[in-house]
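Anyone else keep sequences and structure tokens together like this?

Example one:
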Amino acid sequence: MSGGDAKKLVRSPSGLRMVPEHRAARSPFGLDEPPWVPDKECPRCMQCDTKFDFITRKHHCRRCGKCFCDKCCSKKVPLPRMCFVDPVRQCAECALVSQKETEFYDKQLKVLMNGATFFVTLGTSDKSELMVCRLSNNQRYLVLDGDSHYEIEIIQISTVQILTEGFTPGDFRVFQDEPEYDLTEMRTNKVRNSNNCSLSTLLSLLGFSNCTAHLCVFQPVQHVNLNKLTLVFK
């Protein structure tokens, strides 16, 4: 592990966390721990309005920081976006969100880090280069590897569009768009759809709520699937 990617174990009121030593090395998916609502400001459960007393204890959701009774905040769910080592207590609403994100971290993130093969067109050039596009180990860059090498910082991406079409073998089309990078992916249906889902989920975590994968199905069984990914930078 390089010095810039070094991590340390820290203890907070919410639990143990494995965090980067340097804030600049944080994953763009990371979330800061929320401030807890002070005990004196929450005499009742903020979900069911049950009054707290010696029997009914209050608990803070580790994701939103609000106060709840045990019934409304009983689930302990992994929270990788805050780098917790163990599952932590969360309210029902936050637990649902965290469970979906955990699926992304456990399954789809591996697809993105393994990468996919694309034809890449740089700038206004008509020439395409075969490259592998993958997410960097620290999750901060989209890495393009081929005869050339590029590292695109994810937080610099302003808009994303994913379009998938089917073409007969040998029928390669030239895409000419304004953005700096055009990526045309060659994948099988199974892997392509998995990669689309993973990339769409990744981008939704970063705030691209309208990012979708448009799939076009063609009658011929044998065809090459070209998946075009367009990135526009700030």
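And example two:
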Amino acid sequence: MELVAQEVAQHRPSSGDSPTRLQEILRYDESEDDHNEIEKSHFNEKGNQEVLHGGRLVSTYDMAELGKLRYSSEVEYSAMSTDDYEHLDVKVLKRLREVTYQELDCLINQSSNTILNSLLNGLCPDLVASRAEAVRAEEQAGNDVMSTPLFICTLAMPAMPTFLHVFEPRYRLMMRRVLEGNRQFGMVMYNRTSSSQGSLGSVPFLEYGTMLEIVNYELLRDGRSFVETRGIGRFKVRAHGMLDGYNVASVERVEDVSLAEEGALEQRETTMARDYAESHFRENPQAQLPTDIAIESLSTQQLLDVCTAFVREMREASAPWLRDRIIQVYGEPPEDPALFPYWFASVVPVLEEEKYVLLRTTHVRERLKIVYSWIGRIRGQRW
């Protein structure tokens, strides 16, 4: 109605001297059941009378705005000159059709009412019917096998927030369905190099992704939305298809190996690395230990300690990627070695393609070793 008010206000100056007498005719509103018969009989009487300008449409609007035209009343019009000012009505009606069409086309899901429905059905019935048919088609949710909607956009990490600006019509529809469902969808990266993704072949996205859950949703007037999500797990795409313009998939959850298997890997690697180191220094006392052996000689806890110490060092040095506003969004570095690499990848300035490797890695130790290698490279760049 704000748009209608704006159009009427813009129309008034151009209407000139165009007087029309408006007579309110009271009518009984059938929806009001609490009137007795005597009261109902009074509704055949005449109500307020006004002389207004701008043609019938604008005059009627102005009379209602003045509070002198009841919701259930009708109006009789009397021309006060030889001109009935029909051209003014044609002009304003054309503009009202245009602005109400734009409002109808904004894809915003808001509650309606009787007056709004009457206006839309009267001004643009074909468009209303077309939109209703489109919505019915959209609401026919896809197939049961491809149950995970995919958002092909950016890299998201488990347990970390991801913020989205949704503006494409296909993803607007997807988000609406997600909100009506379990509020979860999959985030996958673009396959920029068109490389083969396992059994999927060359598809437009990378096969590993992160399942996101919507925690906050803000819908704008023009249909765009801002969405705050949090990663709740990893997955691998097994099969995919299309539903109303966006990708859907059958996915397999990606889990870390058991604690027993993780411990066995740590024991095996550290033992072999230390044995190698002893032999290496025996033969070459002054030689430096190869980087990969040096990393594998560290326990998982030692790897985490080195990584967290580096974060403290960088914060003390006021590294731009560890400013307060970044920490406010992603939180303090986790003490859990399983989660720390995801946090680090969310803040560190490293290529997304390198961070992506974390999603398909099922060993906590391996993820920490990847982070350790990034730290070594950052130190080298600084010096």
